[in-house]
């Protein structure tokens, strides 16, 4: 008897639920008549958590998410909760911390059909295929003390060797499955944490003799992503730099409305989410691009459940929709969320 996987569904806010519905429709379609069996558990979270349970991360949501095999999250937050005592985003920080999700993984690839929309020259765009591995639970966003006074403010950037070492191993292991190249990002000409970052990277690199390594300052890296994107395979970066570089990387793909990400820890369920926000400006209009969530579903099938072929069918179906120009306005088309979803559902249902 096959095991039934449990997927926690945190449906999100504003366009969140619109694209979640699309992702789940594609999940249902691609797994139909296969051995992959799952059940969905919908849990209040983010703004929806505040509305339903008075908390962006209700205790019951955390407990059930922890007990699941994977967590599917859609974009959260928005102006509705600007005055709330706790912001929806605090729920996400708390969830990542509670699950120990210290590595955020974002693939950056430009599908042939999107090359024309990329701000890069076509020949550069076509060769772009890298993954950013961003440290997620430490560094400048979490260091203490943190002070905001009238005439001064303090943030603290701090890293433990153990925190650096584990993210390095994640990145190097990922490189072994790819093109065997790692780029270490830091600012070690100035920052102490970056000097430590580089030292630990050199030590960890010894364990992976087949992987070649480059060391790059973050400012040079910001240029590199635009000027020579094809030279990167796996990029390992501290939290703050990774936040900035991954938004830059998203821009060169032609639309943020189609990019997934995953966050993983040492054990326990991984969390899958589109990289973009809840886009309040277009919510309720039926024009949100569902491809981000559909790619997110593919990533979950592949990485948490080892269903590479199902994932491949989903990605191929998305590519087919793009090639047929069945795309939403953010990608230059006129299709609705519903039309794009139906096209992709039909494409994954077709016998291979
Ligand atoms: P956050 O602070 O939550 O990251 P943001 O202000 O950075 O939000 P996003 O919501 O990430 O903004 O995206 C910026 C804009 O891109 C949105 O306002 C929206 O117009 C567009 N956008 C984002 N995601 C999508 C999508 N899936 N489909 C269509 N347009 C999108
Ligand atoms: Mg943003």
TrEMBL record:
It holds the Pfam family Iso_dh. SUPFAM superfamilies: Isocitrate/Isopropylmalate dehydrogenase-like. Keywords: Amino-acid biosynthesis, Branched-chain amino acid biosynthesis, Leucine biosynthesis, Magnesium, Metal-binding, NAD, Oxidoreductase. It comes from the Bacteria. InterPro entries: IsoPropMal-DH-like_dom, Isopropylmalate_DH. Residues 6-344 form the Isopropylmalate dehydrogenase-like domain. The keyword Repeat does not apply. One of its GO terms (molecular function) is 3-isopropylmalate dehydrogenase activity. Its EC number is 1.1.1.85. Belongs to the isocitrate and isopropylmalate dehydrogenases family. This is 3-isopropylmalate dehydrogenase. The gene is leuB.
